[in-house]
Amino acid sequence: MPLDHTKNMLETLKYYSDCQITQTFVKDQSQILVVRYIKESHSFEVTYTGTSMKRTYPTIDSAAVAIEQAIGNH
User: Fold this and answer.
1) What is d(CA 68, CA 66) in angstroms, rounded to the nearest whole number?
2) What pTM did the predictor assign?
3) Digits of tens for pLDDT over the chain (74 positions)?
4) Does domain 3-70 have CATH number 3.30.720?
């Protein structure tokens, strides 16, 4: 997926920060990660489903790069 497309999805999550929206990323029919925007900290939380590890990214750019790396589009 193009990086701009990922950034657009993250912008949408941020825009609707008053809602509980998560974005799930799948590769080869397996869930790779889940992303949500945390309004209180103004950051994106990425949960890697294989390890249940959670990482927080302060910007759309940093979250988008992490997502692209995780799904193999770097």
Assistant:
1) 6
2) 0.88
3) 789 999 999 999 999 999 989 999 998 899 999 999 999 999 999 999 989 999 999 999 999 999 999 988 54
4) yes
